[in-house]
Each structure stands twice: as C-alpha cells, then as structure tokens.
Amino acid sequence: MAEHMDLHTVGDLLHHYPRRYAERGELTALADLPLDEHVTVVAQVADARVHTFNKGGRGKGQRLEVTITDGSGRMQLVFFGRTVHFHQKELLPGRRAMFAGKVGLFNRKLQLAHPEYKLIDADSDTETVKAFASELLPIYPACKQLESWTIEQSVAIALDSMAATGWAGLVDPLPPALREGRGLTDLADALGKVHRPHTKADITDARDRLKWDEAFVLQVALARRRHADTQLPAVPRRPVEGGLLDAFDAKLPFTLTDGQQKVTREIFDDLATDHPMHRLLQGEVGSGKTMVALRAMLAVVDAGGQAAMLAPTEVLAQQHHRSVTEMMGELAEGGMLGGSEHATKVVLLTGSMGAAGRRKALLDLVTGEAGLVIGTHALIEDKVQFHDLGLVVVDEQHRFGVEQRDALRGKGKQPPHLLVMTATPIPRTVAMTVFGDLETSVLDQLPAGRSPIASHVVPAADKPHFLARAWERVREEVEGGHQAYVVCPRIGDEEDQKQKRKASPEDEAEKRPPLAVLEVAEQLRAGPLAGLRVEVLHGRMHPDDKDDVMRRFAAAEVDVLVATTVIEVGVNVPNATAMVIMDADRFGVSQLHQLRGRVGRGSAAGLCLLVTEMPEASPARQRLGAVASTLDGFELSRIDLEQRREGDVLGQAQSGVRSSLRMLTVIDDEEVITAAREEATAVVLADPDLTAHPELRTALDALLDKEREEYLEKG
Asked: Quick one: pLDDT band at residue 428, thresholds 50, 70, 90?
C-alpha cells in the first residue's frame, strides 16, 4: 500500500475514500469510462469467444474476447495466452462480475486487457453475495497491484480495530463549537459511514463532515499566511498629483474601462497602507491587465519608489519592455535628450543579456535612475540591487516561491507590495483555495476595439478536406493584408528524440508523435503555403534570433509564424488575425484559450482553427468543442477544472505530493469553502498560534508536511 498507493498509516487508509458506490441492479456507466485510468466496473457478460491468430511466423496464438454490458454501453475485455480457456469457462454469458483494470484503446474502441475480476452470482461465497446484496458496495480508487476489493477488506480491518480501541489516537481538527454550530457528525461516525454506508443518507452525512475537515484545515493554513503578511511593515506609496502617472494618463489615446478604473482603485487603496499589498489581478486575455499594472508601477515611481515586473520568459519580458516604452514614449526617456521632465528610465534585465548591457542596467537600478525594470527571474539574483524597491508585479501564473519572495523582499528597505497577474481566469472558489493568501481583483470586460474570434474544430482524420480548407483560409487572410500563427506541440530537433517521452494513451492509440514546428514549417513552405514568408519561433532558439523573428513578425515582414507555445502569453501583434493549432488535443483548455487570445487583437475579426485527429466521440474532441463554443474564459476554466480534477488545482500534481483534497471538489463545494474561509479567518484572528486548538495544529502539521508547506509557500 505504501509503495503503490502512497498509503503509509492507518489514517492514510481511512482517508482513502471510496470513489463511488455500486448498488445492486445499478451498473457503472461503461459509456463514461476515462481512458488510461484504473477502473472497477460491475457488468454482465454478453458474449465470449476464442479467436486464433498468427504470431508472425511463430505459430498460432489464441485470444479470448469477452463483451460486457451494463445497459449504458458495451465494452470489450481481452485475454491472451494459456489461461484463455479457464477464463472462458468462468465468464459465461449472463454472469455478472466486478472487473478491474486499466482502460485502453484498441481499434478506436475502449477495452480492458487482462482485467482482474470477481464473480458476483449464486456460485460466489456467501460473504460476497451478502456484501453485494447489502445495497451499497464501496468502489475505491485502485491500481494494478491493489484491487478495489483488497482495499475494502483492509479498510474493514482498520475500522474494526479502531472501534475496538474506542478510536484512540483519532485527531478531530474541527473545534467542537464549530462542529455543533454547523450540525456536523463526529469524525469517527463520518469515517464509519463513508466506508460502510447502509443508506445514501449515511454517505451524505459523512461527505458533508469530511469536506468540512479538508476545507477548514486548508483555509486555516491560508488564513495564517494572510495574517503573517499583515504583520509585515511596508512603505505606503500614494500617487502624487502632477507627476509621471498624470503625464502618462494625459497622453493615453483611449479612456480606461469601468473595470480597469475599479481595479485601479482597489490597488491604489492597498498601496497606500503600511503593510504589503498581496493582490491577484485576474482578467481575460486582452482585458488590459498590463495597463492597470503599468499605472500602479508609475504611481509607485511618483511616490519615490521603484517597480519591477517579472515575466516568465525572455520573449515575454522583451515584449513587455517594448510595449511599455512605446506606450510611455518620452516619459520612458529619463535622463536622455528629449526626455520629459517627469520621465524615468525603463530597463530590461534578462539572463542572456551581454555583460556591458547588464552592467549598465544594474547601475541604473542601484542608483535609482531607472524607476521601472522589466525582466525574467534574473531580477532575483544576488547581484541585482535596487535603490528603493516599492512594487513587484509578477506576470502570468508564476506565483512566487517563498525563497524568491524573500530574496525580493530583501532587496527593498521594507517588503515591497506584490501584484500577481494571471490571464487564465480562475473560478472564484479556486482563487479562494489556491490563491487564498491573496486578495482578488477581476477584470472581466474587454477594452473597446477588440474583435470577436471565431473558433472551429478541424477533424483532420475524419475530413481531410477540412484541413486543406484551413490552409486556404490562412492564404486568404495573408492576401487580405493580415498574418497568421501556426502552433505545434513540439520543436522537432534532435534533442526532442533523446528525451524519451512517456506516451499518453492518445499517442498509443495514434502511434504518432505530436507534430513539430520544424517539420510543419517545412511542409507548409513546400506545399499549401508555398510562396508565403513562413518563419519559425521556439524556445531553443538564441534569444537574439527569437527577438529578431518577433520584431519582423510585428513589422509584417513575416506572413506566417510557425511556433511552439512560446507565443502563449503577452505576444501582441494586432495584424495577426488567424491561428491554426495543430494537434490541438495535446493542449489544455486554458492553454488553448490563451493561445487563441493572440488573434483578434486589432480591428479585424480573428479566426482560430483547432486541428485534431481524435475520433468524434473522444473526450479530447468534447474538450475542443467546448473551447470552440465559448470565448468566456471563466466558463472554460470551469470546464478545464472539471476535466482535470482537483489534484492538479493545488499544484500537487507538479510537486508530486498527493492532493490534500480527497472529498472536497473545488467547483461544486463553493458554499463549504466560503463558510470555511470565514470560520478559519475568525479562528486565526482570535488565536494566530492556535494555542487553544491543539488538535487543529496537529491536523495542520499533517496537511502541511514539509513538501506541501513549501508548495503553499511557493504558491
């Protein structure tokens, strides 16, 4: 159990809850099985036949194909080798059984190869029949080495021995007053009911209670973080009349949207306080977040401080630097001839800069000559010193690690204010759970002059002529004076081949590596886009080459840019109106939405074509259909979350730690999360060190093992 399921203690086992419950007469929906996951299904054998096949010159082999049905759909099981006839005798048509195995694809149909199974019928031992007849059969998340029924037997032993000791050693994290006030059952009762329910009401009771545990402990962890942050000192930064910000506003060719003005007020209120701002600014692709952040940075410069903007990639840092200096004009030319009297310097700092340019930039920062600096994580290095760092803006999801935050805090005389921006809209509950230590601002209206984007799925395998038409559409856009992007999942040079990738089930099914930039560009130049100026852009190019390609694309000297996702965030070329995303099923929902946001940035309408070879009924196609059907990022983020499940939401998937959420679903349990946040805030306010709540402290220590604590700190 420790090795294969990461279950090390009795507590871990008791908190390994059933995924669902099978009822007598109720069959699992075979139609909805997830590809590449271990599943347990209860179904009836419809048909079983042995087939003989040639083993390619090594004689003949036999395989048993069994069709099972559950009313919602049918599915194939397959067995090979010497045991074929044994299984055929067991799996007679009409028999019912529990089958466990990993869902695979063969000939585009779902199947289980060599599943474990357990017959449930008159010949079974009385225990199985009794368990099956007793209404609700718990089905656990399982793996190849541990079937659901083995886990069930182990849980039963643990429950019985815990009950025999009167549940000694069980730690209940909920303060008694909270538990009684909310009418929640006690923990021992909840664990009994979740594993051995007699009725559906038992399951509901248990889930209500166990969800509260998860939500409350997590919110206490976040509330303590927020509380600790409010104890830090910061220099208040109030805008000055008649300064750089006013001069900048006076030359803006447009007025700010109501949303931008509202969010700006929230940020300026935070900047005026004497503890550091910690705010998350989330907005749709193209909602004008950069403008809001830039105005906050200028206000800080007016107040005598410096502001730093951190971008996740060099391409993006260069792009931000270019657009900020263009927007500011002579206001960005501090100390230069022709610079305005209010002007400051805007410097760029990235890892690949030449030594001379870097020295100059570092000098401008330490003397305070440069009010604004834009860069990558190179900004955090020891050598970088600021004159008076007042505000840090972190662009795009890269929430800051505690070491990085400390490093930056150390660069200010006092901790700087922090603004985190993300263009991936996050549902409110997720924001409360994942970014729970930050206050949240949302920009949800697009600035005037943005054009709508039409999105379509192009099923290349089913309808090859659709793909041919897609390239014609690209040609038409270019002939109309516009430009286009073609996005591929892979670069396609030799290094790719060396990195042996773990094939996804779709790869297994299609037996084809994802399309690559270099190959696709070659094919397009020789074929459907012959005669057009086609260039490539990817992360392994030299920074100067990347910058050169981006500059020429922005100057309309390139018609079609074939790129990896380096263009995903922040790249702004209003004349680019079309985007073709190859192997679109290899990208996540929010990533597709981000990519799509690169077109339709000017006055001409945008077009986004999602090319895929996945079959129509596949989940991948449904996902692409969802992206094509709405431009609402918040709606898509819900879909994305429902598909990816919660484990990833807390980033645990990345840090390799089991998700702390086993019962709570961030999307559906909004009420619990909101209420838990209020209760947690009250508890922490009254008792920041939790002196009066030793059991809650124990639960917190268990939740925040070292890795997870670091994860929460890194955000």
From this structure: confident
- Of 287, 396, 288, nearest in space to 631 by CA: 287
pLDDT at residue 334 in the model: 76
pLDDT (tens digit, 9 = 90+) per residue, 244-284? Answer: 999 999 988 888 888 899 999 999 999 999 999 989 898 87
Please tell me the number of Cα atoms within 13 Å of 135 on its side-chain side: 8
Rounded CA separation 612/624 (Å): 9
Sequence-distant (≥ 6) Cβ neighbours of residue 426 within 8 angstroms? 282, 434, 435, 637
DSSP lists the bridge partners of residue 139 as 20
How distant is the alpha carbon of residue 3 from its chain centre? 27
The SS3 of residue 88 is helix
Alpha-carbon distance of 539 to 564, in angstroms, equals: 8
Of 383, 365, 418, 430, nearest to 232 (Cα)?
Answer: 418
CA 552 to mean position of chain CA atoms: 32
What is the pLDDT confidence band of residue 708, given thresholds at 50, 70 and 90? low
SS (H, E, C) 137-175: EEECCCECCECHHHHHHHHHHHHHHHHHCCCCCCCCCCC
* Segment (H or E) for 238: none
Question: Rounded to whole angstroms, what are the CA distances from 643 to 32, 139, 604, 623, 638?
Answer: 12, 21, 33, 8, 9
Residue with tokens 């030449």: 354
Q: Classify residue 6 as left (phi > 0), alpha (psi -120 to 50) or beta.
A: left
CB burial class (10 A; 0-12, 13-18, 19+) of residue 411? buried
Taking the C-alpha atoms of residue 467 and residue 459, their distance in angstroms, rounded to an integer, is 8
How many whole angstroms separate alpha carbon 463 and alpha carbon 442? 41
Nearest to 404 by CA among 371, 385, 378: 378
Of 204-208, 381-385, 408-412, 509-513, the range with the lowest mean pLDDT is 509-513
Asked if residue 608 lies in contact with residue 473, where contact means CB atoms within 8 angstroms, the answer is: no
In whole angstroms, what is the distance from residue 392 CA to residue 407 CA? 12
The size of the chain, in residues, is 715
pLDDT, residue 131, reads 54
Q: What is the pLDDT of residues 203-228, one digit of tens each?
A: 999 999 999 998 999 899 889 988 98
Give residue 504's Cα distance to chain centre: 18
- pLDDT at position 439 is 83
Measured CA to CA, the distance from residue 4 to residue 144 in angstroms comes to 9
Secondary structure (3-state) at 435? coil
